């Protein structure tokens, strides 16, 4: 184990092989399912989501390898699991940002958004990419294995996580504002189409659920790195699985059940049932006319 200080450790516990194998399997299966859904429905904005799932699976492979190396862990294996598990949620977030843009497009609700829909996805994805690059570069700096590089990499990762939390919090604010305004004054398209009225609400609630899961996970990671290498959270493996692995797997399951392909189908092909209002027409003489379909 390469480091400058005998008090510095890559792991402060022996990584669990069983836990790692379980989540390798779960994330791999979820990623295969999402890949199938993506290809079958051609929902291309889910590509980052699928890549994030594979990052999670490979990251836990790295932890499984680490469980066989105790106590002489390789820096390369440690960084593999550290970086991939760390940045995967940023890829999930990219798809979530794009999905809100499609909800606004589907409902013809641009007037209810505090950000122009043409810029909404670009702004949030740009922030997400910046956060991703900071976290990945921080993990790369940690690869040298020295105490100094580990501390530098940690600080860069913390900066990336702060950016991720800020952008995600703003995103939730944008989504909630849009939802409230649409509830108070539905667009004509939502009023005219019962299918759209149901679908957009189902998907925005799904976004809320996923956003909460990712926010909790990101705050956990922020606190974990903030406590340092000898902190309580990073010294107990159970927290990684409870506040990262479980939450991110739940995010993948949530989007497998309520998949964004439904939005794509409606945006591209139009809606299903249209609410038809029956209007009775009377002539000026008081003679009852025919009903409009």
Automatic annotation (TrEMBL):
Its main location: membrane. Keywords: Membrane, Transmembrane, Transmembrane helix. GO terms for cellular component: membrane. The chain crosses the membrane at residues 16-33, 45-66, 78-98, 119-136, 156-180, 204-223, 238-258. It is a multi-pass membrane protein. Pfam families: RTA1. It is found in: Membrane. It comes from the Eukaryota. This is RTA1 like protein. It comes from Cladophialophora psammophila CBS 110553.
């Amino acid at each position: 184990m390469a480091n400058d200080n005998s008090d510095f450790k890559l792991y402060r516990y022996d990584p669990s092989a069983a836990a790692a194998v379980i989540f390798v399997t779960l994330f791999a299966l979820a990623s295969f399912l999402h890949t199938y859904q993506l290809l079958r429905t051609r929902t291309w904005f889910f590509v980052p989501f699928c890549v994030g799932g594979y990052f999670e699976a490979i990251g836990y492979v790295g932890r499984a390898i680490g469980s066989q190396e105790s106590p002489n862990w390789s820096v390369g294996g440690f960084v593999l699991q550290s970086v991939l598990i760390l940045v995967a949620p940023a890829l999930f977030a990219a798809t979530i940002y794009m999905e809100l843009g499609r909800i606004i497009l589907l409902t013809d609700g641009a007037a209810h958004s505090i950000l122009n829909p043409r810029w909404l996805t670009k702004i949030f994805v740009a922030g997400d990419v910046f956060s991703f690059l900071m976290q990945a570069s921080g993990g790369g700096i940690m690869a040298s294995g020295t105490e100094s590089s580990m501390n530098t990499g940690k600080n860069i990762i913390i900066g990336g996580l702060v950016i991720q939390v800020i952008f995600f919090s703003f995103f939730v604010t944008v989504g909630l504002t849009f939802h409230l305004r649409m509830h108070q004054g539905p667009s004509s398209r939502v009023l005219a189409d019962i299918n759209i009225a149901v679908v957009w609400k189902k998907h925005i609630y799904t976004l809320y659920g996923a956003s909460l899961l990712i926010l909790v996970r990101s705050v956990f990671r922020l606190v974990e790195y903030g406590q340092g290498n000898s902190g309580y959270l990073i010294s107990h493996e159970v927290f990684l699985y409870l506040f990262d692995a479980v939450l991110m797997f739940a995010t993948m399951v949530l989007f497998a059940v309520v998949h964004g392909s439904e939005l794509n189908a409606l945006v591209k092909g139009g809606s299903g049932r249209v609410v038809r209002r029956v209007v009775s027409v009377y002539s000026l003489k008081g003679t009852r006319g025919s009903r409009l379909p």
